[in-house]
Inverse folding.
């Protein structure tokens, strides 16, 4: 597979063999067809959290606490209500090994401080059942399926991937990152990253080149799990805050 820079993805992408691209597009068609009209929201956001073997229970808890703290931040709560619909939809997804089904919360519509608090409580107590390999591609694919079948009429659709390692080789055929990023591009979903760099100083570059995708996509670093909460707060602000398009004329 050949790697090139794609201005639409916003970073490097892999040129896939035709058979893989047809398979990916088949998945995309199925997801697009599954989406039904639903209540309008400014943003449909999937928070995809790493629970692979490199993440111990304390580190996993710090990730969840950081997400909860983000949704308790007054600026984030203000951003939730800043768009034309004054509400967003959010779900938490936990991923790890490629072949293990992912765990996900219900979708929550957030339109008030109490809604944000309810989601924060769900996030900080979400149970861990995942472990094993680092299957980022399958985690991203599961997040895209969650968006595609959510039923929300969303102005923007975003997957927020956080993790502390690179994708590990799969034992059997699964969706890997190059295919998952093509799926995101075909669905018009933006993929942002939060790279926890305490074990791999080059992970920020990896996330920027191999994980994030789509117009306006970005990756933020967290130097360790203790810094995760502040990085997540800044990331949520940037993802959620309504910024209307400005004409260049």
């Amino acid at each position: 597979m050949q790697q090139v820079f794609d201005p639409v993805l916003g970073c490097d992408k892999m040129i896939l063999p035709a058979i893989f691209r047809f398979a990916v597009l088949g998945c995309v068609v199925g997801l697009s067809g599954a989406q039904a009209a639903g209540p309008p929201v400014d943003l449909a956001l999937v928070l995809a959290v790493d629970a692979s073997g490199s993440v111990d229970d304390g580190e996993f808890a710090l990730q969840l606490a950081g997400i909860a703290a983000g949704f308790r931040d007054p600026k984030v709560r203000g951003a939730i209500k800043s768009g034309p619909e004054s509400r967003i939809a959010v779900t938490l997804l936990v991923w790890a090994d490629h072949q293990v089904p992912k765990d996900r919360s219900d979708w929550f519509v957030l339109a008030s401080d109490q809604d944000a608090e309810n989601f924060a409580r769900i996030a900080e107590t979400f149970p861990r059942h995942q472990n094993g390999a680092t299957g980022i591609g399958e985690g991203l694919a599961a997040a895209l399926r969650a968006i595609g079948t959510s039923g929300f009429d969303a102005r923007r659709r975003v997957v927020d991937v956080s993790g502390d390692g690179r994708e590990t080789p799969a034992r059997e055929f699964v969706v890997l990152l190059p295919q998952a990023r093509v799926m995101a591009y075909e669905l018009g979903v933006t993929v942002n990253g939060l790279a926890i760099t305490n074990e791999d100083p080059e992970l920020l570059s990896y996330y920027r080149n191999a994980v994030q995708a789509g117009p306006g996509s970005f990756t933020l670093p967290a130097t360790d799990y203790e810094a995760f909460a502040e990085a997540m707060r800044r990331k949520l602000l940037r993802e959620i805050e309504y910024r209307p398009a400005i004409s260049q004329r």
Q: What stands out?
A: The first strand starts at residue 2 and ends at 6. The first helix runs from residue 18 to 34. The helical segments are 18-34, 57-72, 74-80, 113-124, 136-148, 177-187, 203-210, 228-240. Confidence is low (pLDDT under 50) at residues 1-36.
